[in-house]
């Protein structure tokens, strides 16, 4: 039996896309926690942890962004607003994450407070992207 989706039904992410989208939020959140730990303790290793966590978030987020771009052009023109919003949030998250990586490439003392602020913003954007991505997209297409 073939299930037909109604025009208002929700369509979830492809499982591989969902796995890729799962990387940025915990990694950017970990970088934010490491920045907070560095701010309070001034141990340089916390800044190094942040750099590595940001790099991991950029890799996972980059593949999720690429997948979102392909979905943006693959889908029909009907109800593309949510796809565009999802793609734009991922794009801004990735660009600010890249800027954060450049800030964290400096001396550990020089990363504060810009690195902390960028980590907070990228974490918030990763949360918004995950929220949009995992809540599903409205579609009128057949599954």
Automatic annotation (TrEMBL):
Pfam families xrefs: DUF2231 (PF09990)
Segments crossing the lipid bilayer: 49-71, 83-103, 115-137
UniProt superkingdom: Bacteria
Keywords, ordered alphabetically: Membrane, Transmembrane, Transmembrane helix
Residues of the DUF2231 domain: 14-133
InterPro entries listed in its UniProt record: DUF2231_TM, UCP029509
Keyword Cell membrane among UniProt keywords: no
Protein name in UniProt: Putative membrane protein
């Amino acid at each position: 039996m073939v299930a037909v989706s109604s025009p208002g039904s929700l369509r979830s992410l492809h499982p591989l896309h969902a796995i890729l989208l799962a990387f940025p939020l915990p990694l950017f959140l970990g970088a934010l926690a490491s920045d907070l730990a560095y701010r309070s303790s001034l141990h340089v290793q916390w800044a190094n942890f942040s750099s590595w966590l940001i790099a991991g978030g950029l890799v996972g987020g980059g593949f999720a962004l690429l997948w979102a771009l392909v979905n943006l052009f693959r889908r029909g023109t009907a109800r593309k607003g949510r796809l565009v919003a999802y793609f734009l949030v991922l794009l801004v998250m990735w660009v600010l994450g890249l800027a954060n990586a450049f800030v964290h490439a400096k001396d550990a003392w020089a990363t504060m407070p810009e690195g902390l602020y960028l980590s907070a913003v990228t974490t918030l954007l990763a949360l918004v992207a995950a929220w949009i991505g995992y809540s599903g997209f409205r579609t009128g297409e057949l599954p």
